[in-house]
Amino acid sequence: MLNVYILSDSTGETAVRLVRAALAQFEEPPVRIVRRANARSEQEVTDVIREAAGGNALLVYSLVTTRLRRLVLEESRRHDVDSLDVLGPMLERLAMHLSRTPQEKPGLFRQLQESRERVIEAVDFAFHHDDGQNADELERAEVVLVGVSRAMKTPTMLYLAYRGWFAANVPLIPDMAPPEPLLKVPAPRVVHLRMSAERLLELRRVRAERTGIPVESYATLNRIRHELDYAGQLVRRHGWQTVEVTGKSVEEVSREIIALLAGAAG
Predict the structure, then answer these.
(1) pTM greater than 0.85 (yes/no)
(2) Does residue 258 share a domain with residue 165?
């Protein structure tokens, strides 16, 4: 029986997959895979090498720090353990071609994977919770953007989603009560996007011309001011936070929202 030791400063999953891919080329090989993950100190590395010594063993290691890789080489020779570095040569070759030094942060690849997966989930959540859709699921949102029509709710929501925030948005419409689930969301997580009446008038007139929406019921100063008053009443009643968006980019608005959320969490 060959004991293949997987030594890693993270989960060791990459090395395990590599070993299993290689083993697939052998018919029923008498092999036992022994995973030793999250080894980040010299003592932990040395203990694994000593464990592998004295038997029929192959040590496969995936370590991002140069110091620990050198230690494995030294200790493997001292204890007569056959060892194979599956990450070091790639790091060194890339460093040479890129003329850069690796960060040597254990678990960084897994963190990047998790970050990408979260962004995918957040974007999917945003598309399913745009413009008040699926309001019964608003408790899952980390931030809910509210405001009148054309107040940058959707683009800001999507910008936040692409940065991993679970965001939703709900329009505030006079003579129409906000959905009950919105009122159950903790006030610090609800952010009102406020735009000046004059800027809203410009944006709505353009939209009305393109879509055929009646100007009288959508793109007049009186109508817009009425909607802004209604939104302001809701904000004061429920203690929601407000970000002024007039003349600002989506990036600027999003930074202010993130700062508000961080302050509320702190």
Answers:
(1) no
(2) yes
